[in-house]
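# nightly structure sweep
# worker-07 picked up a monomer target from the shared queue
# config: single-sequence mode, recycle default, output format = structure tokens
# input follows
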Amino acid sequence: MIQSQSPTYQQFPGLCKNNGCSLKYFYLKESEGWKLDADSLRAAVSNSTDVVHVVNPNNPTAKILTLEEMDLIVTHCRSVDAWLVVDEVYAGAEREGDAITPSFYSMYEKCVAIGSMSKAYGLPGLRIGWAIGCATVIAKCWRHHEYVAISSGMIDNMLAEEALLNRPRILQRTRGLIRNGWSLVQCAVEENSDILSVVPPQASAMCFLKYHLSVDSMTVSRKLATQEKILVVPGILFDEEFHLRFSFALPPDAVKLGLARLVKVLREFRGMENV
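# output follows
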């Protein structure tokens, strides 16, 4: 039995479903700033739990778990001797302050923590990441890795090494893009508060916009793509309807254009509802 956070990046839950695993969710509560719902965690984790899955900082909400929330998750894992698998790829992309989001790895002996060059470092094309865990689990991961990929490219490895050697400078650039982009999103949401709201992101290059219309998020996303050439992820793919995952860590002109086109489409849908 797998217990996974929701909303969450769907890679791990998708793999579990594809392999026939039983899957149950615990939740983050939007009404409380995407706070961990302790009751749903308590209800989800049981003696049949094999793995608890967490994304921290969260994708798509950009929520960073507090130390108390992290400790609660670890306590539940330990109580049933479950593994804890944590996607930590957005650590380093914090919007406020320069402290790196704490890792779960040092908190629990049965934790596997996953990182990547894709997000905070802005190098998804390298397809390079890492996993930290106990020796027996990592050895098994190596065996699977050899069947799937054998190795990454020499140039990819060199670029990843160079980026890690310049980690402070790269993370500073990432945080600058996030902070500048967020100020533009915040202004757009305030100016269109009748149709948009958002819990301020704590980390990552995106936010989870909520729109106050009756049209489903897949329809909105498709119209944005076909009519306005704007790509967003519909909230229904995270089991959160009437939301859109919107990326804003881009040059200011691109963010402004994207927001203008997003608002235009939402206003068009609002006009249809008022007819």
